[in-house]
Amino acid sequence: MSNETILHDHVTGAHEADHEVHEHHHHETFITKYVFSQDHKMISKQFLFTGITWAIIGGLFSVIFRLQLGYPESTFPWLEDLLGHWAKGGRLDPEFYYSLVTMHGTILVFFVLTAGLSGTFANFLIPLQVGARDMASPFLNMLSYWFFFSASIVMMVSLFMQTGPASGGWTIYPPLSALGDASEGSKIGMDLWLTSMSLFIISSLLGGLNYITTILNMRTKGMSMTRMPLTIWALFFTAILGVLSFPVLLSGCILLLFDRNLGTSFYLSDIFINGKILPNEGGSPILFQHLFWFLGHPEVYIIILPAMGIASEVMSVNSRKPIFGYMAMVGSLFAIAALAFLVWAHHMFVTGLNPFLGSFFVLLTLLIAVPSAIKVFNWLTTLWRGNLRFTPAMLYAIGFVSLFISGGLTGIFLGNSALDIHLHDTYFIIAHFHIVMGVAGMFGMFAGVYHWYPKMYGRYLNNTLGYIHFWVTMIGSYLIFWPMHYEGLAGMPRRYYDFSNWESFKMFAGLNEFISFVSIIVFSAQILFVFNFFYSMFKGRKLTSLNPWGATTLEWTTPLKPGHGNWIGEIPEVHRWAYDYGKDGRAFISQTEPVGEQESKH
Amino acid sequence: MNQFFLIAIVVMIFLLIFQIAKASEYVSILKGEEKSRKQTNRVNGFLLIAFLIFGLFGVWWCNDLYYGKTLFPQGSASYEGENIDTMMWITIIVCGVVFFITQILLFAFSYKYQESDKRTAYYFTHNNKLELLWTGVPAIVLTVLVVFGLKYWFKFTSDAPKNAQMVEVTGHQFGWEFRYAGRDGVFGKKNFKLTDPAKGNPLGVDWNDEASHDDIHVAATMHLVVNKPVKLIINSQDVIHDVGLPHFRMKMDAVPGIPTTLWFTPKYTTEEMKVRTGNANFVYELSCDQICGKNHFAMRGVIIVESQQEFDKWMVSQTPEYTKTLPGNNSAPQADTSATGAKPVASLELKK
Prior knowledge:
The structure holds 2 protein chains of 2 kinds.
Chain A: H1 3-27, H2 30-35, H3 40-70, H4 77-83, H5 94-130, H6 138-159, H7 188-217, H8 230-261, E1 272-273, E2 276-277, H9 285-319, H10 326-340, H11 355-367, H12 369-383, H13 392-415, H14 417-423, H15 427-457, H16 463-481, H17 484-489, H18 509-539
Antiparallel strand pairs in A: 1-2
Helix pairs in contact in A: 3-5, 3-6, 3-18, 5-6, 5-7, 5-8, 5-9, 5-15, 6-7, 7-8, 8-9, 8-10, 9-10, 9-13, 9-15, 10-12, 12-13, 13-15, 13-16, 15-16, 16-18
Chain B: H1 2-31, H2 33-66, H3 79-112, H4 128-157, E1 165-172, E2 175-180, E3 216-219, E4 221-225, E5 230-236, E6 241-245, E7 250-254, E8 260-264, H5 270-277, E9 284-288, E10 300-306, H6 308-316, H7 321-325, H8 343-351
Parallel strand pairs in B: 1-5, 4-10
Antiparallel strand pairs in B: 1-2, 2-3, 5-8, 6-7, 6-9, 9-10
């Protein structure tokens, strides 16, 4: 498409949308506005609400299983009231402990940090920051949410099954997940898990295709790719990762469903279980791991890239200074996204993988540290000689960088196959991925919520609650996960219900109790955030300016509460990149301002 | 009753925090939003630098508390594992330097460049020299780590030395089985379709293969010889398990249908380790490190590392599995029930 046509399209698009805004004023019903909405802003809020709901559930699960780990001798009668036969006498059943672990992982990785994070911010920011009325296909976008919603329902239903939800870990390795004889959770719960994930993958694909199309085709006049804010670049690569890798997981899930229900042997061979000799021969459980991690590894970048984009944007705005090395930031995002597809087998160093093949995965995995290092140094330089405003969002962005450094460095241990032999499946890996992906991902999400909440609701979140939330979460996260490295260095295996019978691991009982205690406090602080979120929607301080943070990007040029179509009148034209902060003595220059004749070049 | 108190207290704390938060918002409006914003900014700037200082102290304190409980002080119990410890130290030093530099810069910059009316932000968009520097240096450092890592990796994954003792490890829900090849040094063939614990064949050994007749099968406890390489041939009967040997720094999955191998050389006997660790109850434990069902956490094996003499003594006291099945096997006499040193050979000759 030539520039002319894009422009033309946009102009006609603008007129139609204006018309729509006008019409909707009269015809919009509760259902079309809040439920089956096609407005990207409403869909993003739907993703965020569902994400928050799942985060509370997933977080609560971790608190419950941390009770078992921290206080293995104690009983909690209220657990029996809550969980019935899964906690007879107030003590968690081992089977259900594994269900909780599995569900905690699944929920947080997919429903919160994928759907909740990129679902929310891709939907909210892409049209607003590239200057589009809505997504390329608002209808598919709506479907994307409702597929996610149905995936949520199916997963929720699985929690209430007599035999419990899936319990083979979030990676659901067969044969454990393939055979009902192997565990209770591998009965109906596993079928529901696979169904739910299949729906989730569809949702993710519909969303991802929309994001890519919108970014490529619907940028406003003047918004060349290199003028896009880094949030959009990050969300763009995230969507590409999802579109290319999720289908592989879908195929893996479908083959697993076949093995479970149709008697095929894709993953099964030579099995004697529960006194029965199974007829399956010739399958390979390792095949599943390849299929799973071909998604599973890009998945962790699907989580962390949007967080990186948000942190970059928030940090630049609140440093009052351009992001340092914009092109290097884009390049490193690209490098990370490309390498994400070439490192999956580093999760499989101890499966009996061909060592020669393994060596390539070592090399490629450690290569990722280079673009990651570039990003960290660029963030640090962005702070250097800035004029920093510590809004809650900014604190979360700084916290994100700190966590990304801590967790990223332990990745260098784990990516090196020789060390991975010792550290694999211990608490070291738990510490690593919770810091670098889990908590850092959440920090990116919090930074985004605190930063764009005023645009979402026209009100601020309560600052004091925000600061309390940040400091408790920041300190608590390090207290929980930092000491776990030591447990890992002692070889303490993950996914253990009880360590008291192990001579080699039982000396950490006191530490486990401490970690559980802190995790309860951190969880409570999240409740504070949820309360702040809903309270401020109605009672928060109102915005007095359209551009509260003094930002250059397009979303702050929209009306206080933009209707469907975002801009009244024509979509603004873009004349410069998104990071003109502190240029020529001016606090910031909006992207919509034409480049002046006297202006210095950068 | 206690529970209600607890809930009440928690609710009160929440309400208190909420009231403070609400009040602070009113105060900030009364005081002037700009003024109170700057005040909060200074408080948070201070907290950031305090976080750094207390954090660094915490890193030291945590290390002080828990370093002794890791496996480093007692050293690797296998010769190969020593390479892993060396590698670990190299990586800890490299990453540690980067960690301290970057974290200190992050929080120090945050503190130093907090908002001030006296300063305007410096418009600094890029600098090719700097960016090349911090692309190049990590790339070189990582190359060093990769080279070292792969050197050891190829060492561990190469073939076991010729004199290595072979032990077959089989995992199942929820325990470990060990099989020794017996006098002939050859394992009898297996076929999973022959598995039948009721008939004394829990491993599915094919008795038609005569090499199987002197094979020794023991459950839960594995005996190894100190200073002698051992090669484990690892199987699983049902789901994926993992042979986790933290003291030897070794680990390998047990995959149904795909045997895997792992070798190492034990360096200290169990008795020596009791002295080294100062723990009279010390045992080498084999933990399942791959989630395998509800008793995953209890899938424990024990390894006894002893001298060659002790090992030989133990070995001759064992009866081959095949011999144990003989009473039900019509073709063989019922004599071989007592366990003496001559028996494994006797039964082997008998079958011939």
